Automatic annotation (TrEMBL):
Belongs to the bacterial histone-like protein family. This is HU family DNA-binding protein. Keywords: DNA condensation, DNA-binding, Plasmid. One of its GO terms (molecular function) is structural constituent of chromatin. GO terms for biological process: chromosome condensation. It holds the Pfam family Bac_DNA_binding. Gene3D superfamilies: IHF-like DNA-binding proteins (4.10.520.10). It comes from Sulfurimonas aquatica.
């Protein structure tokens, strides 16, 4: 599903009058989650899931087929854990 199809789905599900209103709601939600995660705050939506920022440790390794090695730095990455309601809903869709 691409963005325009998702906007149409949100418009129908949320009973928005126009696609512009639905897209504005999506942008507001994603921006709010991004701001919260940048502040290292968790966002929990009961029944849907939770978003959080987690530290991903740096690693070092060797490039296959060469003698070159590389290292990466520690960084914060976004994570999502699905809630029971979402898991059950997806499982029913089989």
């Amino acid at each position: 599903m691409n963005k325009s199809e998702f906007v149409e789905l949100v418009q129908a599900s949320g009973e928005y009058n126009t696609k512009v209103e639905a897209e504005k709601a999506i942008k507001a939600f994603t921006e709010a989650v991004a701001v919260a995660l940048a502040k290292k705050e968790d966002v929990s939506l009961v029944g849907f899931g939770s978003f959080n920022a987690a530290l991903q440790k740096g690693k070092s390794g060797k490039v296959p087929g060469t003698d070159k090695t590389y290292t990466t730095e520690d960084k914060m990455v976004p994570k999502f854990k699905a809630g029971k309601g979402l898991k059950d809903r997806v499982a029913e869709g089989k």
